[in-house]
Amino acid sequence: MExxxxxxxxxxxxxxxxxSNWVVTGLAPLLTAQTHHISFLSQAKxxxxxxxxxxxxVIVGPAFENQVAQRTSAIVTxxxxxxxxxxxxxxxxxSGRIAEPRIHPSxxxxxxxxxxxxxxxxxxxVLERGAVVGAGTVLKSRVTLGENCQIGAxxxxxxxxxxxxxxxxxxPDHGRWEKIEQLGAVxxxxxxxxxxxxxxxxxxxxxxxxxxxxKLDNLIQIGHxxxxxxxxxxxxxxxxxxxxxxxxxxxxxxxxxxxxxxxLADHVHISAASVVTRSIHQPGHYTGLFxxxxxxxxxxxxxxxxxxxxxxxxxxxxxxxxxxxxERDHDGHS
Length: 334
What we know:
Elements: E1 3-4, H1 5-12, E2 15-18, E3 23-24, E4 26-27, E5 37-40, H2 47-52, E6 57-60, E7 73-76, H3 80-95, E8 108-109, E9 114-115, E10 120-121, E11 126-127, E12 132-133, E13 138-139, E14 144-145, E15 150-151, E16 156-157, E17 162-165, E18 170-173, E19 176-179, E20 186-188, E21 193-194, E22 199-201, E23 208-210, E24 215-216, E25 221-222, E26 227-228, E27 233-234, E28 239-240, E29 245-246, E30 251-252, E31 257-258, E32 263-264, E33 268-270, E34 275-276, E35 284-286, H4 295-306, H5 308-332
Parallel strand pairs: 4-5, 5-6, 6-7, 8-11, 9-12, 10-13, 11-14, 12-15, 13-16, 14-17, 15-20, 16-21, 17-22, 20-23, 21-24, 22-25, 23-26, 24-27, 25-28, 26-29, 27-30, 28-31, 29-32, 30-33, 31-34, 33-35
Antiparallel strand pairs: 1-3, 2-7, 18-19
């Protein structure tokens, strides 16, 4: 695979500094790139790596134009990180793919399933009755799409994903559990990407909904009746409990948990490992975790936290005493 810098700019835009005919044969980080690689610099804190990089071409923003003026080649663009993302897409397209069957012969497909003419169904996938796969969507190996569940257009579903397993619903009955049949489905919009081994449960009565442009990382659990708004992104090992509603353009960091029946407004950003225990109605960045520490210190702090309620009551009692003393002193000077 080879591309000239000029061909890259012709396809993606930007402005060339240096030799537009320079040929690159791969993409690499600044520190490991060689003269046949193209790399990028998107944050000022990594500019020290630029000086020692051997990359034949570097994608930079206007602020670093002077620093790359003497290089063999460079591409100047307003958003180097976004440009690099689009370059990876261009590289994959130009690399081409080995011809494979559109629907792998090992896939198990029930009756009454709709698969768009250009969708790709990978090895060992299972599509149950009434499932729908939209145009340009790719299901990697071992994806399970449950009964009556729908996936929109141009989605990418990675290996091991299960869409439409039963939600976790049971009614207590004298010390045992009675199953609540999950009668809803899962509806996934367009341009959604779902990471490996992520599970999205079907709704109990209404559908679980994943709107357009949502990006889910690996090993995420989405409970039944959850609704995730458009273009929200979640990192690995996030857990969203049943009936939670997540707004549009939100981000949830790795390992974070949102409890059931809560709502997050649009543009809410949750830090990694946080536990969301209340609804959040205003956009912003929220964190809820106990900082890591040496175990002995952590145990002392944890013990103190257990006393907070009692300490609060004592402080309130002291405040009442202080207020009474002030009133008494005031009356005494009157």
